Amino acid sequence: MRKQWLNSGLPVLVGATLAASAALAQAVDTARIEAAGQNDWLTYHGSYKSYHYSPLAQINANNVGNLSVAWMHIPGRSTRGLQSMPLVADGVLYYSGSYSRVFALNGATGEVIWSFFPELDEALISRQTHSPYNRGVALGEGKVFVGTMDGRLFGLDAKTGKVLWETKLIDSQKLTVGFTGAPLYAKGSVIIGAQGGEWPGRGPIFAVDATTGKKKWEFLTVAGTDEAMKTWGSDSWRTGGGGGWMPGTYDSETNTILWGTANPAPLYDWSGADYKTQGARPGDNLYTSSVIGLDIDTGKLKFYHQELPHDAWDFDSAVGEFVMLERDGQKLVVHPNKGGFVFVYDRNLGVKNVWRLVENINFVKDIDPKTGALIGRRDFPVGKVTEPPLCPFIGGGISWNAGSYNPKTGLYYKIGQEWCMTLDIQKTTPVTTPQAQLNIGADFKMAPPPGGEIYGHLDARDPITGAKKWEVRYPEPPLGSVLSTAGNLVFVPDSRGVLHAYDAETGAELWNHNNGTGHQGGIVSYSVGGKQYIAVAAGFGGMLADEYAPNFGGVYKSMPRDDGALVVFSLK
């Protein structure tokens, strides 16, 4: 073993076997991510297909009962918990913690190889609502890429953690927002979107050259084209919100980046039924609450579908899943929307079907499955919203946590959230000086569904038709991501702190383990030296998790806050 002092200022140990493995490592490039090899987890959802699935089967339905903790890593200063999605390449696990801290660990032992702690403006962070958590990194060309809350993107040497380049993309001192979501690497570019649809900006998405860090292009999700400008009355585009705070994916066949966009600002509008001509932002507000296809080389818009024209409910489309499937000779894309519906598209984002994952939905009566048109909108004037409460709650019928598609079972495993909210709509004025201020436009409070109780559920569904095979219910909605594997397993980290393993065909629970604190982050599987591991982020306390103690009590009242750990399991 050899001792190194790297940029964290902490001593670290590097195993000789890992060093040998790294010497044989292949470059992480577009072709390798597309191939989605068994041993690694190279991009946010595992590959550009966004399956969030592992083809490893050493851990399986027959032996999962022998799963136990192999190692843990404590990142420290986990303000608002741990929300990162780990990545793994050639035996090295990379993940981020709060304050955009990045760690490279031996995937077999957890020993620290290097760590990176960027210097950040604490005064700026204190003004932000969507921080200081970070949801992940990207890998490519021998680098690790991470965004920061003060609007920077870093390219780090994957072997040493050394800063190779640093690019300022957002004037966060003025606009307040920065980056909390993971970047996406593809075709020599690093793509990342700004956080915070509730902030008065124009929601940029950026592409940066992975080698040099130089900005290649910028696309504005608010009024980014002449067509879109016409959908923002009264110059409201100047403070329209938007953004794309979760990573999308890359379709190499069409050279297209697929990305989901955030809600407009103010979050709640008081225009009522006259939203086309009245209120804070008259019109459909393109390209907020949309899915968009951008040319990866130029950033030019190729196609789009606005899932919620004039979103008045914060049920945006920034969920990062674009599950790329083929069925009956058709190439399809499955994209969940925060409102509780799942959209099925062709590869040009033409609507093929829309189905409900969630039962308690009343912001619309329905969505036309052939056209995607909203049926029976529920828009609000100023004042308290009359009964029934608005469903779902602001946390969404679907949240940002990833689902999983298993090509062996043909099923899509996805968390649904059954909760609602009371609402008091208020007029607001955008504040942009001296710094941009949050622009919500309502007071709201979690409420149970009419005639029922709040709960969450894991569904096993046909991803194209929505037909349900089985369901598992939880007393509170889980906020962690879902993982399925070739071992006929589905893993769900729940909000109470329990990691569950289910039979992928039947939903029968086969194993569980209490990690001691709630989950609101990622889960992946990988292999090192012929041994399979399951890695899950534990640590509660983000914006949505903060609602659990006052609303549900129980274990959430005593659950650790501002704490977190990466917990890694293997067979005994």
How would you describe this protein?
The protein is mainly beta and 572 residues long. The protein has a single domain (30-571), classed as 8 Propeller (Methanol Dehydrogenase, Chain A). 6% of the residues lie in helices and 35% in strands. It contains 7 helices and 40 strands. The strands form 11 sheets. It has a 5-stranded mixed beta sheet, with no helix packed on it. It has a 4-stranded antiparallel beta sheet with strand order 4-40-39-38, with no helix packed on it. It has a 4-stranded antiparallel beta sheet with strand order 5-6-7-8, with no helix packed on it. The longest helix is centred in the first third of the chain and has 8 residues, at 16-23. The protein is globular and about 65 Å long. The protein starts with a strand and ends with a strand. Residues 1-27 form the signal peptide. This is Alcohol dehydrogenase. Keywords: Oxidoreductase, Signal. Pfam families: PQQ (PF01011). Residues 41-359, 459-534 form the Pyrrolo-quinoline quinone repeat domain.
